[in-house]
Amino acid sequence: MKKLFLYLFAIALFGGCEYHKEELAKNAKEKDSLMAIVSSKDAVINDFLSTMNEIENNLMAVTQKQNMVTSDAAAAGGAEMKKPTKERINQQINDINALMDQNKKKLAALQAKLKASGGKVAELEKMIATLQDQMAQKNKELEGLNQQIASLNTKVEKLNTDVSDLTAQNTTKQKTIDDQTAAMHTAYYTIGTSKELQTNKVINKEGGFLGLGKHPILRSDFNADAFKTIDITQTTTIAINKKDAKMITTHPADSYKMDKDAKGQVTNIVITNPDKFWKASKYLVVQTN
Fold first, then answer.
1. Which helix (H) or strand (E) covers residue 114, if one does?
2. Domain stops at, among 146, 181, 216
3. Residue-wise pLDDT tens for the chain (289 aa)?
């Protein structure tokens, strides 16, 4: 009887141990499952937080670039925009658009992940709503910035047009001045014997009595092609190299001299006072023998 009791006790004890082991295994399995769920939710939350940080960093970068664009635009507002400044502003605007596009995609991905998680995390939803508000505000600021840049471009285009018109006017005026200056500094001369000058329709012989005592004068309808052109500010010596020479046109005697060689031949007419010499006439006719 005693042996039977011990046997039954042993069976009961063994059975109790087996039951306890099963409970422990079940509890461990449930614990692992719970840890996996917690770990999964932690990963989701960490992913959410990481993406939100990226969006906020992008918004900070957008703000910095906004300030740079505003600064460059203000600096160029009163003058012609130089090419490096314009290129820098365009690059900054492109960077801003790229960052805002990234934020838009990241925010959409966050909303999709939150919906797919099947959970309602009030704090995460609140953070997403805050980011949406920040994005909306930033878009509003960028619209204002784009209007400012558009206005600046209009001003720059008008300024460029005004500068082009002014440059064209100045070019025309300068050409007129140059032409007038060139005309003021231009004179004409011709050299030849009496016969050559008459043949070339430069002079006529007038005056005298019965064909005697006539003197040569410059024709009113002289042939301009018979004259050479000179710049009176550059040319003060005219080569003659003839036995004799005399002026047909009128020029003050004290405004020039005739150089002669040892044989008395006239070598050059040297103009000693150009303003006085050319004042009476811009045409010089020299008759040689």
1. helix 83-116
2. 181
3. 544 444 444 444 445 445 445 555 555 565 455 454 444 455 666 667 777 778 778 778 878 877 877 777 776 654 555 667 777 777 877 888 888 888 888 888 877 877 776 555 666 777 778 878 888 888 888 887 777 777 777 776 777 777 788 888 888 888 988 888 888 899 999 999 999 999 999 998 876 454 555 788 999 899 999 999 999 999 999 999 999 999 999 999 999 999 999 999 999 999 999 999 999 899 999 999 8
Last residue of a domain, one of 123, 155, 181: 181
Residue type, 239: A
- Whether residues 175 and 237 share a domain: the answer is no
Closest by CA to 85, choosing from 68, 64, 98, 100, is 68
What helix, strand, coil percent values describe the chain, rounded to 5? 65, 15, 20
pTM of the entire structure?
Answer: 0.46
- Classify 258 as helix, strand or coil: strand
